[in-house]
Description:
single chain; mainly alpha; 2 domains; two-stranded parallel ribbon; 10 helices; 4 strands
Amino acid sequence: MTYPRNEPILPDDSLLYCSAVWHLIRLKGKGSALAFPLYDRACALASKSGRFHLSLTRLAPYFNVDRRALYSAADLLRQSGFFIETDYGCGEPSHYHPVTHEEWAEKHPGKCCEKLVMPWDGEDGDPLGRQLYGITGLTFYPQILKGWRNKSGLTDEQIVERTKIFMEDRATLVGLHNGIAKRRALGRFLCGG
């Protein structure tokens, strides 16, 4: 799916690739605000062993919350499939396997968002378009880049450096309220027009 100009992005479409963040930020209920931070720390602590088994009661001060909030977050992670309880701790910390997004996606096909296709994606993509998008947040189509290269006589590296200068000059950006206006102004700046 290509990002349509001036169209809203559908709920399952994204400018980024799907990740655990996309799923966990959508959890609802008690503990939902802590689900991703708990998952993030659990993944970091379990990176080598694949097991997370810290006491949530003792971990609560780290997150500056009441222990019940962490237990609620752990329950949401378990219910959503991002935590697999490997050992229930009767009086001891439970052991969890934090499920990576890749593992989760295999078990939940069709539940991930889809990254929108950008003009520079694929084999024919222009690396300059990706670089300029990273600097400006604007989309640059191949024909625009070709025209700028021809008219300006600049190398791709020079275009990147001049684009950085353009974006740092706030006076230049005043009054440029949309992408089309910014692209046109950048083209004039690069091509001396």
